[in-house]
User: Fold this.
Amino acid sequence: MKRSAEEASLLVDRAAAASEVINNASSDDANPHRVSMIASSASLMSTSHHMSSSSLSSSTTKSTNNNSNQTFLTRFINARLLQRDGSLERGELTVDSSTGIIIQIRFDSQQHQPLQDNTDNNIDHNQQISHTVDCRGMILSPGFIDIQLNGAYGIDFSNGGCEDNHDDDSAANNSRNNSGLCIHDIFQVATSLCQSGVTSFCPTMVSSSRDTYRRVLPLIRNARRQQQQQQRDNTKIGANILGMHLEGPFFDPSKRGAHSLIHILAPSKGIDTVKEVYGLNQVQEEENDNDVDYSSPMLEDIDIITLAPELDGALDATKSLTQPSASERNVIISCGHTGATYEEGLQAISHGATLLTHLFNAMNPFHHRKPGLVGLLSSKSKLASMGHQRPYFSLIVDGIHVHESAVSMAYNSHPNGCVLVTDAMSAMGLGDGVHALGDMSVNIKGDRATLTGTDTLAGSVVSMDTCVRRFRKFTNCTIGEALLCATLHPANVLNRSVMQERATEAPIGVLEIGARADLVVVTDELDVVATWVNGKIAYDGRKLL
Ligand SMILES: [Zn+2]
Assistant:
């Protein structure tokens, strides 16, 4: 696979950006080897050089000095690497497990010209541990990213929080003075998700009370911060906790699905209502000084808000949240639980919405004279003439929420927009029975979750790897194309697949130099074999190591 000069220089830029991320992320890390190694690995991609195969054949651990400058490399060989276009290229990939960054990729098609191992030349062998993982011809993909997960393994992200969760003392965080969500629970979900290949997820709340938002948002933020520290210390490995997905409460009451009616309202005063309901920066505004109360919800806690764009004030809120002032962070706005028409959908896109939440579910069905939001998928030129792209759309491919024919139709209308979500609730992984979803009761039977005593679907209980397998079966797409819908596309939704200006975190959802080493090895049947988060093993189902 030949790379152009522009691509080569892009890789060098990415590597330089990645080194900044690394330096920003680890205060105790001033290893010059690491930066030069990354830069050199980028140049490896741009020249005719390649590594000698002899340096990769060993799986032994090299001797090391146990000091802070130590570099821990993990090399994945005999892999088929997922590319941005969905192709699978045979080759190998090297990660610096101490920083969690991909530092080198080489394709077998480059092998015919022998060369020196530039990586080794830049590392003092006394400071390097090298570990080789033989992928045995299986697929190496970026880890899965689930942007809509209400909970799993008995834990519900909408279940309030403990009073003691707001400080950083771990004993307090783990104590339970009521039955609410605790930081320990969030970590438990994060750890368990790695079994299904998930390496990043947006904890998702159903429409909740004001009090619950005020409890849960700071709790998830604390979990994120603690997790980042744990990853640096290598003390606990679990799927990355991304910003929250707040699903509701700004919904059309008639399309609320399993959401509780008492919480549903319109954002009549636009961004002001949104801030008031979620409790965003209340203390900062009231006290009008620079002392932000970190125990209150903040805009930085939120990645995605799902709302119904036709409601009073919803377009104003959408515009304010997606095109904020320089001091505020933007939020992804998704249309969902909505009775919006096609025209109202166009309006939402023109005001900044970029995603449709669980397409087909809780929205108007496609009709040939009233296409509704589903019609936006085939409106490429119409939206282009307005200066916009078609929205991404999430799909719950559990085989229950959407018929396979509709899955296939949506995907074929707009393949690059398709994002798989589990929309899983707390009973995922628990089996049949009665379980909690927010303040409601849900009955689970097989793969079906319904509000107790009704036929209303209440989220799913399938895992992401199951969704990927079913999606491939329903659409007859390639393995790589199915994987993109759980990796690159959700990363694109979050603007995380490329290095962003002023970003403090490396890209996710791609196998590229400078990206986070969140990886999953899968078979051709899309069964998860092993998972790495931040360059460290998080799940090894078939003892690949
Ligand atoms: Zn929903």
Residues 247, 257, 336-337, 358, 362 surround zinc ion (CB under 6 Å). Residues 1-67, 113-124, 163-178, 283-287 have pLDDT under 50 and may be disordered.
